[in-house]
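Appendix B, record 7
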Amino acid sequence: MSGIDFSDWQRAQQARFETALETALPPADTYPARLHGAMRYACVGGKRLRALLVYSAGEALGLAPARLDSAALALELIHAFSLVHDDLPAMDDDDLRRGRPTVHKAYDEGTAILVGDGLQTLAFELLAADAGLPAEARTDMLRHLARATGSRGMTGGQQADLEAEGADLTLAEMERLHAHKTGALILACLELPLAAAQASAEAREALGRYGRALGLAYQIQDDVLDVTASTGELGKTAGKDVDANKSTYVRLLGLEAARSRAAGLFAEAQAALAGFGPSADPLRALTGYISARGH
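C-alpha cells (predicted):
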C-alpha cells in the first residue's frame, strides 16, 4: 500500500474502535448488571473487520474517522448480536466463540437472547444520537442499517439458512441466501460511509459492487475454513457446517473450486476500486488482508 504501512493503520483503527466501544457500552455494573456484563462479554475479541471496512471506506471517500465512529460501532454491535443469537441451541447450538464459551454457556440462554436484543438496539441508538452527522445522512444510514439487519437482510438470511439444513441448494440459491445472511451486513459497511459522505452515484455504484463481491467471497472463504482450519485457529468449533449437514460452497462446488470462486470474487472487489486514487489504498490493503485470513 503506497506510502502507508497497513499493520500500523490497522492497529491505529482498531485502537480507535476499542476506545469508542469502551465508552459506548454501558458499564458492567449498570442495572441490570448481569445483562450489561454479558453484553460486554459478547463484544470482547474479534478482528473488527466491519469497523475496519467502515473506516477504510471513509478514507476512500475523504471522511475523517471521527465522522464514522458511530457507524463502526453500530455495525460491530449488530455483528456481535448476530453471533450471540447464531450460537443459541435453537440456531447453530455452539459452545465456543472467539476462543471462549459462547454467551449462553458463560451466562444462560435467556440472558443470551436479551444480550442480542440489547446490542441491536444500542447500535441504532448510537447512530441516531450522533450529532456530528447531518440529520439527512443519519436517516439514510439508519435506513441502510435496518434493511441490512432485518428480514430482507441478515435476519432473513438466517431464516433461509435454517430452512436449508439438509437441503441441496443450487449455486444461485446459495448465493441468494448468503447475500442476505453474510453479505448484507458487509455491504452496509460501505453503504453507511457512502451515506455519511453523501457520495456521488459513481462512488455508490463502485463501492456497492465492491461490497457485494466481498460479502460473497467472505462467506465462501468461511465455508473453506470450516473444513480446513482447526478449532483453535477458528476460535469456534470447526466442522460444524458438515456436522449439521448444511449446504455450503465446499459441499456444492468442492474444495478447490470453492477456493477459486472466492479468489475470483476478491479480485472483482479489488477491480471495483479502480476509479479511486491513493485514498482507497487502506481499503485495497484490507481486502488483501481479508483474502489471506486463516480464521
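Remarks on this record: The domain at 6-285 is CATH 1.10.600.10 (Farnesyl Diphosphate Synthase). The mean pLDDT is 94.
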